[in-house]
Write a structure and sequence with these properties.
About 5% of the residues lie in helices and about 50% in strands. By secondary structure, it is mostly beta strands. It has a domain at about 330-355. About 5% of the residues are buried.
Length: about 350
């Protein structure tokens, strides 16, 4: 549905019903609505003849979308590949009484509801254009595997569980910098700031581990109130410079002399769980976030007669990463070569090790 009045006030609205065989028998269909209004301020009498502002539009919208990004038959209980005896030998195939997971007849669409408000401004007969958008998105009924009680006989089940929120600001600026008969130069710049957080993990869960990375570690912990992609780990607190320092640490109380000697030159870690006798998983704290502070892009397009040149630059700022190259190049326990920087910066007895690597 679209409606416009006096080329100043615009209204759009839509509604759709989507169905997917991937979902449970009770929820194969879902409805999604959207609506938007716009005010073309530049067509009002007080701005119509402006020599500076050639276009000014204020926008406000709301919309819903659905996600069906799961495998086929995900809501069904499927036979699993399993070894079974047949004909006097062990066969590999689909056993008739072994299932890969429990069915979920109530599995339904994951839904994202988005609010957006924005403004479009054109200057000097739209030679310079600026768009600014503020948005907030909330995704509910997340499609994810949830750990099930041991009494079910299964490790996990695909369910609708959890809520995630994203909100941010997007700015786009484009301009015709120069326009001649045989030469034209156009520039475009955009930047976006997004912040996300976990609102709920469902079933009263406050914290859960994401999947392990290739090293077997699990640095990603999903925590209510924190962003998706939050990194957790231990915090270094210098080195053990001598045996006396090791013995004074309650973590190594009553340890044999061989272990005490072995720990000299090793990294000390800070204790956060109020248990000074051990360094464990509960001493890990938030140390990073893989989400960038902002993303930007800058494009310049040049045209001279029949020749075109385009220069595009994009980047991100403020995101933390796990540098796997550094991990392998700095690990002396792999039996492989290590970087010269790590070798030269290794802890050395009797030296200043404040900057040791």
């Amino acid at each position: 549905l679209q409606y416009g009045y006096a080329d100043r006030y615009l209204l759009t609205a839509s509604y759709r019903q989507d169905g997917s065989s991937k979902f449970g028998t009770n929820n194969k269909w879902a409805g999604f609505a959207s609506a938007g209004v716009a005010w073309k301020v530049s067509n009002e009498e007080f701005l119509k003849n402006s020599r500076v502002v050639s276009n000014l539009v204020y926008r406000l919208s709301y919309g819903q979308t659905g996600n069906q990004g799961i495998g086929s038959y995900a809501s069904l209980s499927k036979l699993a590949v399993y070894n079974y005896p047949f004909g006097g030998a062990l066969q590999t195939g689909l056993a008739d009484d072994i299932f890969s997971g429990p069915a979920n007849a109530n599995l339904k669409w994951e839904t994202t509801s988005a609010y957006n408000t924005g403004i479009d401004i054109g200057f000097f007969t739209n030679r310079v254009n600026l768009s600014v958008d503020l948005y907030k998105k909330r995704t509910t009924d997340l499609l994810q595997y949830v750990t099930t009680p041991a009494s079910t006989g299964f490790q996990r089940q695909l369910k609708n569980s959890g809520t995630v929120e994203n909100k941010g600001l997007e700015i786009a600026l484009n301009a015709t910098v120069l326009k001649k008969k045989d030469f034209q130069w156009n520039s475009n710049f955009n930047i976006s700031f997004n912040r996300n957080k976990i609102v709920s993990l469902g079933d009263g869960i406050k914290e859960q581990f994401a999947g392990n990375i290739s090293t077997g570690d699990a640095p990603f912990i999903q925590t209510v109130g924190q962003p998706i992609g939050a990194l957790y780990g231990h915090v270094e607190d210098g080195y053990y410079d001598n045996e006396a320092e090791v013995r004074n640490d309650q973590v190594y109380t009553n340890q044999p002399a061989a272990i005490i000697r072995r720990m000299v030159g090793e990294i000390k870690y800070r204790n956060f769980d109020n248990d000074p006798t051990s360094i464990s998983i509960t001493d890990r704290v938030l140390i990073g976030n893989v989400n960038p502070d902002y993303i930007f892009g800058f494009t310049n397009n040049f045209r001279y007669k029949q020749f075109d040149l385009s220069i595009f630059v994009n980047g991100v700022q403020g995101n933390d990463i796990i540098n796997m190259n550094t991990r392998f190049n700095a690990n002396i326990g792999t039996g492989k070569n290590i970087s010269q920087e790590v070798f030269d910066g290794a802890w050395t007895e009797g030296k200043d090790n404040s900057s040791a690597t």
